[in-house]
Amino acid sequence: MSFSWVTPPTFADGAGNGPTAANFDAISNDLGFINQEFPIRAEAWHRNDTVVVGNALTVTYSSVARFGHFAEQDPGADGDSFEQSIILAAGTYTMYTIGRSDNQSGKLDWSLNGTIFEAGQNWYSAAPTANVIKTVASVVVVASGRHTLNGTVNGKDGSSGTYHMHLTRTWLVPAEDVV
Amino acid sequence: MSTWTPPKRLFGSISAANLNTYWRDNTAYIGENLPHHVTMFHDTSLVTNGNAIAANALPGQWYYRTFSQTASADGDIFTQSFWCAAGTYTFTVLCRTTANGGLVDWTLDGGSIDTGMDFYTGGTVVNTQLTIVGASVAVGRHVLTGTVNGQNVASGGYDIEITKIHAVKTA
Questions:
Q1: Which strands sit side by side in the sheet containing B46-49, from one edge to the other?
Q2: Which residue from A14, A83, A153, B44 has the least number of CB within 10 angstroms?
């Protein structure tokens, strides 16, 4: 069912002029429209994340990094955790995260509203590599509204020295932009 | 502008005044308070015709990057989605113009809002801001589509190098 926005009606008192079914239907239509029209894209800059566990985020400026910077909890530790609030319509999305991989990076578990949907995302690489984009396909958002996207460091590659995370941005997109 | 009043149970007090306060005005409030500013980075655009979007490292460009369908071609199409309050908006396209720039037609939900936005300049110019002024936008979610449609007669190609598109409500 598709809804369109109408100016909410004014309810009236008086003999034979009380609230009508049409009034209620118009309000219901608008509420349906609001729920239907939630955004289908979200973006979270790591520098704006709220730290849940671990050291504060610091920003490093870099002309090599896309958008000129990355952020990290410094020093990083196993169990570091950060989160950000996003608004999305119910649906299925692809999530991308851009950052720098290196031989001191850990692994990330990603959760949405407390449910892990991606475990062990490995940011280790033998050599530092800027602008690595990690992809998580088929991220399911069950209900439209505000959601908490959380990243938690959970271990590291056997070859990695520490648990650092040098991230710039995470974004979610649908398979298709639709009205 | 409507105001928000915390809803309450109306049992026993379903008056017109209460319905207007708790249903009409609260519903209007939600519709009116969608965002007035929208930022869309071009690396998140979805390509619906043509080659994939690649990042171009440009130290002189804001955010150090432009993004473009590479190789470009006439007829390239990309889309973005955004969510906003109703109003009149100015769209600003932060880009790099070059001697190989193309022309872009813009539509919003399928209706034209601008034609022939010209990404050509004789020399390369970073941080160019091309604008669409006075676009009427309804409340809710929308699809913004850019379609490459020809080129300046002096241009050698169809390149569209964009960093981001920003929309702001002006009225």
A1: B46-49, B77-84, B140-151, B102-108, B111-118
A2: A14
Cα–Cα distance for residue pair B158/B165, rounded to 1 Å? 19
Question: Could you tell me if A24 and A1 lie in one domain?
Answer: yes
Residue A140 has pLDDT above 70, yes or no: yes
Global ipTM = 0.90
**Domain range annotation of chain B:** 1-33, 37-169
Contacts of A12 in chain B (CB under 8 A): 16
Question: Using CB atoms, which residue from B24, B28, B64 is nearest to A66?
Answer: B64
Of B25, B44, B46, nearest to A176 by CB-CB distance is B46
Contacts of B139 in chain A (CB under 8 A): 5, 37
Tokens of B158: 């169809």
User: Is A47 found in the same domain as A4?
Assistant: no
Residue numbers of the domain that contains A57: 42-173
Contact A131 B41 (CB under 8 A): no
Instruction: List the single residue in A with minimal CA-CA distance to B60.
Output: A63
Does residue B7 carry a pLDDT above 90? no
Q: Residue for token digits 């118009």?
A: A26
Cβ distance of A27 and B27 shorter than 8 Å: yes
Query: Tens digits of per-residue pLDDT, B47-93?
Result: 999 999 999 999 899 999 999 999 999 999 999 999 999 999 999 99
Does A18 reside within a domain?
A: yes
Are the C-beta atoms of residues B170 and B136 closer than 8 Å to each other?
A: no
User: Beta strand B140-151 with A166-173: parallel, antiparallel or unpaired?
Assistant: unpaired
Reported as a single tens digit per residue, the pLDDT across A156-171 is 999 999 999 999 999 9
The structure tokens 């049992």 sit at B11
Chain A residues with CB under 8 Å of a chain B CB are 5, 7-13, 18-19, 23, 27, 30-31, 33-34, 36-41, 43, 63-68, 87, 89, 131, 171, 173-174, 176-179
Select the more confidently predicted residue: A170 or B4.
A170
Task: Please indicate, yes or no, whether the overall pTM of this predicted structure exceeds 0.80.
Answer: yes
Q: Give the rounded distance of the alpha carbon of B30 from its chain centre.
A: 22
Minimum-distance CB partner of B44 among A38, A87, A173: A173
What was the pLDDT predicted at A71?
97
